[in-house]
Specification:
Elements (H helix, E strand, L loop, with lengths): L8 E6 L3 E8 L4 H25 L5 H26 L6 H10 L6 H18 L2 E6 L3 E3 L5 E3 L4 E7 L2 E6 L4 E5 L9 H13 L1
Antiparallel strand pairs: 1-2, 2-3, 3-4, 4-5, 6-7, 7-8
Helix pairs in contact: 1-2, 1-3, 1-4, 3-4
Length: 198
């Protein structure tokens, strides 16, 4: 899964729904989630190697060397991608594979835990997009929060900062600056003002 932040899209106009604006906001915790995923992978490998040790596996030394080499290569490849392309590889499939391996040891709970962690990992790494349309504002919490226009006190885009001020005094504020930003601030702010007046 490529997590290089995509460009903010210009307004998409539909005859039925009217203009729709999409703002991609950076997932500032993606590196933290990736470190946690590596920790989970490490614990899986450690636990499975321990099970092999208890079972007196004849290939234990080879398994340790292969697991250690693959784990280090995985980290080095991620460091390279982060520095060169500002992206992180998806580790979800590895979590699933390690989960299935627990069946070799007749430990189904290991698989269940890994599937749950895989699901949480995918949620944590998803693309975060704020959508502003004539119907509502969709905020990328989980699940997606739908905010009606009558709940909004002010919504403004200024100097690449999107501010959503709710009537309940809650404020969402995000930097949406992008090299290829195509949303016209004046046009967007006028659109928001009209929706709030309506």
């Amino acid at each position: 899964m490529n997590h290089q932040e995509p460009h903010n899209k210009p307004a998409v106009t539909s005859a039925e729904t009217g203009p729709e604006y999409h703002f991609v906001i950076p997932n500032t915790r993606r590196l933290i989630y990736q470190v946690f995923a590596y920790g989970i992978i490490f614990l899986n490998l450690l636990g499975q190697l321990l099970m092999d040790y208890r079972r007196n596996s004849p290939n234990l030394k080879i398994s340790i060397l292969v697991c250690a080499a693959l784990f280090v290569l995985l980290i080095l490849w991620d460091i390279y991608r982060l520095r060169k392309k500002n992206t992180l590889q998806s580790l979800g499939i590895i979590l699933l594979i390690l989960g299935f391996r627990w069946y070799q040891y007749a430990l189904g709970w290991g698989f269940v835990i890994n599937v749950a962690l895989w699901f949480l990992y995918l949620i944590a790494r998803r693309k975060l997009v704020i959508t502003v349309s004539t119907q509502e504002i969709r905020y990328p919490s989980y699940p997606v929060k739908k905010i009606a226009w009558d709940e909004i006190s002010n919504l403004v885009l200024k100097d690449d900062i999107l501010t959503i001020d709710l009537r309940n005094n809650k404020i969402y504020q995000h930097l949406v600056k992008d090299a290829d930003q195509e949303v016209d601030e004046a046009e967007f702010n006028d659109f928001c003002r009209k929706q709030m007046e309506r």
